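Need tokens for this chain, all 344 residues.
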Amino acid sequence: MDGVGIVQPDTQYGGALLALGTAVGFGSLVVVIFSAQSQGWRAFVSVISVGFLVCSASLLIGSLVGFLFGIPRSLEKLKLPREGADEKALSEPTGETTRYRPNTNLEDISDWLTKILVGVGLTQVDSIRAALRSTGQLIAPALGGFQSSEVFALGGLLYFSTCGFFIGFLWARLTLPRLYLVADLRAAERKGVEAGVKLGTEKFLDSTTKGLAERGTVQEVRADRFALWVDNNPQGNSRERALMEQMLGLSFKDVISTDEALEELESSKNKYSIIISDISRPEGEEAGFDLLKKLKKKEFSHPLIFYTGLIQSGDEEKALSLGAKGITTSPQKLFDLVRNALSS
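Here are the structure tokens for all 344 residues:
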């Protein structure tokens, strides 16, 4: 992600995380050493359990506070390709998403607290001391009631809450912007792929008819060849359908769901020569794969080709393993797959 203007956590966060992890490990070791003065193993287990519970709670609370301080804000708008854009527009996109910069609330609050402490901090010293002492006295009996239990309780609270604060703050400050940006770029990639597919479809369809005719690959039109096209947005396939009607002599029946496709095939088992299907539909993210599984279960032997706007990792392997004749986002490859399937 060169040039995106974010902090790379691998180099800048790793060292700080290691240091904080070492600090937490050292604090845990101190808890074990403190618990060792207990008389008997039951007392030892009780003291060490309470010690780790108090320190873990302090670490968690500190991490939450640090996380809230470090949450990034949106910085600026990135331009993304708008749906339906032409080739020029794809290189000069007009959609929008966001980049992020670190939250500076910690600096603002630090400045604010400094000013407040100068004005009123000295007058509250006794109250703060009393609150800390009350907290230590509350926890001390559960830590064995030793003479040092109160001091240890207060030390553990402050130590682990401070470690937790920096862990949460650094994670939010250095890692969240990267995660946000990755999500934005994936959304941009999806939009770009969809826009590119539409543009490629138009360019292909404008040139393919002439090219196929020149190469002598136009097949004789046959009125008895039908294709079932399963897509919840059939209007988006009108140009591809028109090409194959003209070049391959196919007649198409459009259905928008798996249930409609199965019903149509049940009523006209020998009518269709081929099935074309998308993968993701409102009925499910893998509705196309589910259709193919049901066709195999019902022992339908129609060749099936997946035509989709975006192929996810593993989709091609899954489609072929289920018996599909192919999967593509390209209108040209779709034409070739359908032609080959009809010829076999």
